[in-house]
Amino acid sequence: MTGDLGRLLRPRSIAVVGGGAWCRQVVRQSAKMGFGGDIWPVHPTATEIEGLPAFASVDVLPHAPDATFIGVNRNLTIDIVAALSDMDAGGAVCFASGFLEAQAEDAGAADLQAQLLAAAGDMPILGPNCYGVINYLDGALLWPDQHGGQRCARGVALVLQSSNIAINLTMQKRGLPVAYVATAGNQAQCGVSEIGQALLEDPRVTALGLHIEGIGDLRAFEALAERARALGKEVVVLKMGRSDQAQKAALSHTASLAGGDAGAAALLDRLGMLRVHDLTTFLETLKLLHVGGRLTQKTLGSISCSGGEASLAADSVVDRDLVFPPLTPRQKTDLRAALGPLVALANPLDYHTYIWRDVPAMTAAFAAMADPGLGMVLLIVDFPRPDRCDPADWDCAIAATIAAAAQTGARYGMVASLPELMPEDVAARLMEAGVVPFCGLEEALEACAIAARVSSDTAVPLLLPAPVGDPQLIAEAEAKATLANHGLRVPRAARCTDMAEVAAASEGVGFPQVLKGEGVAHKTEAGAVRLNLSSVEQTVEAAETMATQGYLIEEMITGGVVELLIGVVCDPAHGFVLTLAAGGTLTEIWQDSASLLIPATDASVEAALRSLRIAPLLDGHRGAPPADIPAILRSVRAVQDYVLAHGCGLAEIEINPLICTKRDAIAADALLRRSE
Q1: How far is CA 308 from each of CA 278, 380, 422, rounded to the nearest angstrom?
Q2: pTM
């Protein structure tokens, strides 16, 4: 547990330890930004640094600094951190590398990191191997390099694991006001979650953007999400890295469906965070959220003065969860009054250029498009390049959009279809007026789709992943019996070891029946399953062809409406991933799946089922009977109950297929791998 990060992030005094070029840049950048507090260079021999008097050591500073940038080697860093902690300093940025992140090359690196943590005690530190933090609100920069930002009164906060990406984002020209940029380094003490939560506490911060490669502490990440919800602030996450941890040594389809990135996606959705996949969408989404938070609807209005742009907008939502709904009678009436009889009214709208430069008429048209049924109205406007053209003729569009937004109270965005055709000064002017300046049509629509997502609403803590030793495959009959104890419906069955037992058990199970060879993961591919056997002789003959030492005879489930897969994989990075998918022999071909984290509510499970491409089969397709949804949900609950009770050592579970009939759901096959 560390102390409060507030003094480090919002300091009134800054000490800079070291005299190299990096440290000089820290002094220079804070002075350049107009930091109003004290800046104290610290160097054992220098008398001044960047025009400021230098102190020989931190011990002789006027008082304990709120924030310190330590730009010396790793061994000296530990000594200075200890001295700062002893004098009750507010916190430090540890610039030096060579700690835990270097343990592959340096056997002593882990020990040095332990020494650093001991030296810090309760004093917060960022890093090591960390660029530091920029506070654009107060002009406080513990930052050893150039940056492209400027002071602002309110804005978004960014926390990144990559210092170089952090630098790049400060150079953006998209009109996004940035309040803080913080880098986490190797997160020896303060992780991304703790830094993010501390930044959200600043009332001047409107939203939080995270660039992360991995999540080290799931409980801290949950706490960040909970605090963001309580504060009414959104978190956008650019999650990098596709891990194969959940797929190692996997025997099931479940691992291939749930491995890689599925756990991360399920975690972020569960916590109500908005996932993006690239830097441009990251910035555009933060821009939208900064202005007014999430979109409450997935419906948009689009206005442009070109039929081509209207068609481009319409086509661009085809593969996104967005809609351009038809115009309402009220919209048509008001648009006709503003545009006259020659304009064909539609959404997206091409309003032609009859009213260009007529700001009152443009305002009336833009305002007419606003409607309570729309999440946002988008104006497509590409500005001319100012080095060769005069952009003043486009001021009418800016004025009309701002006026329409003020008049209606609706959410408006202005979109340059090409990112480079949204001038930075125009973006800043629109942002100040509460209009989102989008750089790129694709980026704008992707940001809208992300901001309109409905996240899982469960606040139940995640089941944390538990250690898995050397997992062993449990025999199918035993796996089914175990899961049946938690409420899973399974077929009547008997286990056999020789032909005499096969013959006797066959009569007891009843016909038609299924014969399976035991100890095989993918029975169909291995020829270890025979279906629809209707006599003892057929079953015995089938058993004689299987190269197995044991047999499982089961009643054959008929009347199936749809086959599903229910699976669980222990993902060491994210928890227990519950996967629902199209089941049976077509699982790999369909690749139709949805993933959640355990525990999941019935509502979220049903929503995941409805998201599958095979979902129409659940309701009865083309006259077929519908599946028993409550029975399917009971099956998922049974699997979850087992995981909640016996998660430690569990590697994976797979029910495939779960045969769903109009009155039941029965596990026709089950795979269970676990260690003691």
Answers
A1: 27, 11, 19
A2: 0.90
